[in-house]
Write a structure and sequence with these properties.
Layout lengths: L2 H4 L12 E5 L4 H15 L5 E7 H6 L11 E5 L14 H23 L11 E5 L3 H9 L4 E5 L3 H11 L12 E2 L7 E2 L17 H9 L9 E4 L7 H7 L5 E3 L21 H7 L6 E5 L8 H14 L3 E4 L12 H4 L2 E4 L4 H6 L3 E6 L3 H10 L3 E3 L6 H11 L3 E3 L14 H13 L3 H19 L4 H23 L7 H4 L3
Parallel strand pairs: 1-2, 1-4, 2-3, 4-5, 5-8, 8-9, 10-11, 10-13, 11-12, 13-14, 14-15
Antiparallel strand pairs: 6-7
Helix pairs in contact: 4-5, 10-15, 13-16, 15-16
Length: 489
């Protein structure tokens, strides 16, 4: 018999548990950083963490990928349970369905976890992707605190915030230079294309509108977490803090340079064995991410540019894109083409000397974290902005430019690609670029190390989670929150 019972006293209630529900936009580039954030959050001891994905994605995963006991994994519906976004007639149709059906099924999930003995207990906070604002609306309706998570750089986040909020006007003149609180000077072609009316705006109007409105709920959001680190973008972070409670918590790259844990495409690990036989810093790694679709003309120019650079290469060309490769290229080229690869392991391999990249933020941040110089070939969204930072702000690479000098989307010819690869690999500026890459690698690791800037910010956020859970427990009626009491709050 316990001491309390022996004294005739009622046993004290267990302390309330903080339980964060993480809601990424359902694509590889958004799930990966938010999953790593979830793992890091769970490792701090105390908060329970559950990540939401769609039914289609959950069923598509290797069971081993869902075996991490530190983070729970649950599914909601996006309305396309058999095929995800590929099943939808268009991206706009998918976004509409995700908003409507995702909202309904997320609300049902939250209500279910409020029931006695359900799962790991009720959720006390929703951490939502800025590209999933409907999740914040659900949280508000169910009286849950909502915290935004930006999978973009602080610079891109600030541009979307300032343009969407009317604080920054995009000039008609493409060569005009703009500046705002903390931002580096940028011309129109260096802004995120969906904020500047550029590539993708006309083809994906809902995505463009979503990009500009992703920070519109700041008045109803307690925090904005950003996958970057203070030392990388200090002035921009200071500018953001004038408009929101922003905390940098990145880079969200797995410890030990391993895999993220939820790969939606099957990676070819044989390429790592191929790299094992190559000299240090001798191979050019090329990848344009899981979404970009290059034209046949651009694919051919890249192929010839790589061949002309006279460096061996490892090029990721998704299966659906391999028909665009020039005839005979595989046989005559001095490299390897794979449909997908374990990118973190490739970037961490000593044989890799340069990364030809579209400058998606995940790829950019991974290269920075692993000290790999870059050749930037941005296509759209935030990629032109990231490319500008890679070349000018951080000095870790060069940008390959189309002959017309325009932004992302124009064809970049083989001579320019070859020139940029040679410049980064063994040109006059290669030593400076490599030294900068090593410097930023150290800074990235320091940020997430115990006592580093992102580690301190994460600790502050954990304290917020616990305080929120305690205040909710104190305000809850006897018996806790239920579906009926939630509608009354």
């Amino acid at each position: 018999m316990g001491e309390a019972a022996e004294l005739g006293l009622a046993a004290a209630a267990p302390p309330p548990h903080a339980h964060a529900l993480i809601v990424p936009y359902p694509s590889q580039g958004h799930i990966n950083p938010m999953l790593q954030f979830a793992k890091r959050l769970a490792s701090r001891g105390g908060p329970r963490v559950t990540l939401v994905t769609t039914r289609f994605i959950l069923l598509s995963l290797d069971p081993a990928a869902t075996a991490d006991a530190s983070v729970g994994l649950v599914a909601i519906s996006d309305g396309y349970d058999r095929g995800g976004v590929a099943e939808a007639p268009s991206l706009d149709d998918y976004l509409r369905s995700l908003d409507a059906v995702g909202s309904q099924t997320l609300a049902a999930l939250i209500e279910h976890h409020r029931g006695a003995g359900a799962g790991d207990g009720p959720f006390t906070c929703v951490v939502y992707d800025t590209y999933a604002p409907w999740a914040a609306a659900v949280a508000s309706r169910l009286a849950l605190p909502a915290v935004a998570f930006s999978t973009q750089s602080c610079t891109a986040s600030a541009v979307y915030c300032y343009v969407g909020g009317g604080l920054l006007q995009v000039p008609e003149d493409g060569s005009a230079v703009i500046s705002a609180e903390g931002l580096p000077s940028l011309c129109k072609s260096e802004l995120p294309s969906l904020a500047a009316g550029g590539s993708g705006s006309g083809a994906y109007p809902m995505l463009a509108a979503l990009s500009l409105s992703q920070f519109s709920r700041l008045g109803k959001t307690d925090w904005v977490l950003v996958n970057s680190f203070e030392e990388l973008e200090p002035q921009v972070v200071d500018g953001l803090k004038l408009h929101m409670k922003a905390l940098t918590v990145g880079p969200t790259v797995p410890e030990g340079d391993g895999r993220h844990g939820m790969d939606l495409l099957r990676a070819d690990a044989a390429c790592l064995r191929w790299l094992d036989g190559k000299p240090a810093a001798s191979v050019v790694y090329v990848s344009f991410g899981s979404f970009a679709c290059l034209s046949a003309e651009q694919t051919a120019e890249i192929a010839h540019g790589l061949r002309d650079s006279r460096h061996e290469f490892l090029w990721v060309v998704r299966g659906s894109e391999q028909g665009k490769l020039p005839a005979g290229f595989r046989e005559e080229a001095g490299g390897v083409v794979v449909a997908w690869c374990p990118q973190l392991a490739v970037l961490a391999h000593p044989a890799v000397g340069c990364f030809v990249t579209h400058c998606g933020w995940n790829s950019t941040l991974e290269a920075l974290s692993l000290g790999v110089p870059m050749v930037a070939m941005p296509q759209w969204t935030d990629q032109p902005t990231n490319a500008r930072l890679v070349e000018d702000a951080w000095g870790v690479g060069v940008r390959a430019r189309p002959a017309t000098g325009g932004g992302g989307g124009a064809v970049i010819v083989r001579a320019e690609i070859s020139r940029c690869v040679r410049e980064v690999m063994d040109g006059p500026g290669a030593r400076r670029i490599r030294a900068n890459a090593v410097k930023w690698k150290a800074a990235a690791r320091e940020a997430v190390r115990s006592g580093g800037s992102s580690d301190r910010n994460l600790g502050e956020f954990v304290e917020y989670l616990h305080a929120t859970a305690q205040s909710r427990a104190a305000a809850a009626p006897a018996g806790g929150y239920t579906a009926s009491t939630a509608t009354m709050i």
